[in-house]
Write a structure and sequence with these properties.
Blueprint (H helix, E strand, L loop, with lengths): L23 H9 L9 H12 L5 E5 L2 E5 L7 E7 L12 E3 L2 E3 L3 H18 L7 E7 L10 H8 L8 E4 L8 E2 L3 E10 L3 E2 L9 H4 L1 H9 L4 E4 L2 E4 L1 E9 L5 E2 L2 E10 L5 H11 L4 E8 L9 H10 L4 E2 L6 H6 L4 E3 L14 E3 H16 L2
Parallel strand pairs: 3-6, 3-7, 7-18, 8-17
Antiparallel strand pairs: 1-2, 2-6, 4-5, 5-19, 8-18, 9-15, 9-16, 10-14, 11-12, 13-15
Length: 370
């Protein structure tokens, strides 16, 4: 997801060897205990790279603090399995701890458990006969500003490393399948006024007061629900910031309402912008950021085969994930990983151990054709 700018890491990180022979929950716990806040993934990337280089039959490459490992058996199909190494800043939730059948800790859900599953899958397929080739991509800086995203960097520098017929992003999806993702657009709606001294306010026009019209329309707006491949994508339009005024004794001559539009993947960013402008035609509108979504792609044979093999009912992804980056490369992608996405970034973040084991087992059986 697109997040906040990097901050300077507050303590030295050191790499600890990863044991890929350990069970997937123990491996998840070890990954949680290796802090990897965005911008400080180096030691974890070192450990992941070393673990992958020790496996037979994998070509391993490092791009910054991202690591890509690929089989190359010449199969006609290739699946890409990807997960980000970084987390948001800690919130008193380190080290990891077990409580019953839950594993708590920073990134347990988003997405150290998914990374553990991917590493176990790499160990399972290394040197084994497969029906298709596999790429494993572990990347940096997903939780921060988009231009640092490791997947975007690889796509720009070495797009061939990410090519495939299907991509699985092991983002938390309750070990099910969340298909595609919404696009998003940030824009400023500018409401004009006329500056005056607050002692003579009648001589001006208070832009903050006039912005009430924009806020009223936003409150009354009913987002659309769009059906794609049998999945309902619920759009959303919300004010996320209101800014006005230059001084406490000046009537504001401009009020800026920042809105966040989450739109169905059937719309392009240009269509989403046109839609928003149609809702507020009389105001100046400045688009500050926009990212396309990703269509579900469930009509593709590999995607349909995976859903059938997993025995799950696919759901729409109501949010933006890096599946959109794969879609931009022409590769259909699905979100499929352990953990409840609603717990991501929370102090009480956890992942059910049974869900991590089930996710690993199902994806391993699919990859090995069992």
């Amino acid at each position: 997801m697109v997040g906040t700018p990097l901050r300077t890491p507050t303590r030295r990180r050191t790499a600890v060897p990863l044991d890929l022979a350990a069970d997937v929950v123990t491996l998840t716990e070890a990954l949680v205990d290796m802090p990897s806040e965005s911008g400080a993934e180096g030691p974890l990337a070192d450990a992941v790279e070393a673990a992958l280089r020790a496996l037979p039959g994998l070509d391993v490459e490092r791009v910054g603090n991202s690591v890509v490992a690929r089989t190359d058996a010449g199969h006609s199909e290739r699946v890409v399995i990807a997960g980000h190494l970084d987390t948001v800043p800690e919130a008193g939730n380190l080290p990891a701890r077990r409580d019953g059948e839950r594993l708590y800790g920073l990134g347990a859900c988003d997405m150290k458990a998914g990374v553990a599953v991917a590493l176990k899958l790499a160990a399972a397929v290394a040197g084994r006969p497969l029906h298709r080739d596999v790429t494993f991509a572990f990347y940096e800086c997903e939780e921060t500003v988009g231009d640092r995203n490791g997947l975007a960097v690889i796509a720009a520098r070495r797009p061939e490393l990410l090519s495939g017929d299907l991509a699985l992003l092991l983002e938390p999806s309750d070990a099910g399948v969340e298909a595609g993702c919404q696009g998003f657009l940030l824009a400023d709606i500018v409401v004009p006024g006329q500056r005056a001294h607050t002692a003579r306010a009648w001589m001006g026009a208070n832009a903050a007061h006039l912005a009430g019209d924009v806020l009223t329309r936003l409150h009354a707006h009913e987002p659309e629900r769009i059906l794609i491949d049998g999945l309902e994508y619920r759009e959303g339009l919300n004010a996320v910031a209101v800014r006005a005024g230059v001084s406490s004794n000046v009537v504001p001559d401009e009020c800026v309402v920042t809105v966040n539009l989450r739109f169905a993947p059937s719309r392009s960013p240009e269509q989403a912008e046109a839609y928003l402008r149609g809702l507020f035609p009389e105001y100046e509108l400045r688009v500050t950021e926009a990212e396309p979504g990703a269509l579900p792609g469930l009509d593709r044979p590999m995607a349909a085969g995976l859903v059938k093999a997993l025995g799950v009912e696919p759901r729409p992804k109501l949010g933006w994930t890096d599946v959109a980056r794969f879609a931009a490369l022409g590769t259909p992608a699905l979100n499929c990983g352990p953990g409840d996405p609603r717990l991501a970034h929370t102090p009480g973040e956890f992942v059910p151990m049974a869900e991590v084991r089930a996710c690993e087992e199902r994806l391993r059986d699919w990859l090995l054709g069992q």
